[in-house]
Amino acid sequence: MSRVKQLIVDSSHLPTSIVIVGVGNSDEFDLMEELDCDGMLLRDDTGRKAARDIVQFVRFNDAIRLGNLAEEVLREIPEQLCLYMENKGFRPNIVSNAPPPMPSMPSQ
């Protein structure tokens, strides 16, 4: 687990997201929850802190029971990408000639 934490901290500076899906029922899922430290940044055993959260852990059975596996698996990816871009100083270009939004579909 020590090496895994080191690699995650190293990877947090790259345009990377790690999605872990826990299949079955296991007490070892607690270790995966440790890697997916929502609300704080992961630290390796030497105390180095990740630049950003890049790990998403989803319990397969829980997500299937709720009927939203894809949503749970992909939930944090957009924020992880935006944070990477912000950390690298990338700012989106403002499009002044963007097409107007699509009209709403009439209700039936």
Key terms:
108 residues; two-stranded parallel sheet; single chain
SSE map:
Elements: H1 2-11, E1 18-22, H2 29-35, E2 55-59, H3 60-66, H4 69-74, H5 77-87
Tally of strands:
2
Number of helices in the DSSP assignment: 5
Which of globular, elongated, flat, extended, rod-shaped describes the shape?
A: flat
Unreliably modeled segments: none
Largest beta sheet, briefly?
2 strands, parallel
Fraction of residues in helices? 25-40%
Output the helix-strand order: HEHEHHH
Structural class, by secondary structure, is mainly alpha
Task: Give structural notes.
The chain has 108 residues and is mainly α. The chain has helices at residues 2-11, 29-35, 60-66, 69-74, 77-87; strands spanning 18-22, 55-59. It has a two-stranded parallel sheet with strand order 1-2. The relative contact order is 0.18. The mean pLDDT is 87.
In short:
38% of the residues lie in helices and 9% in strands.
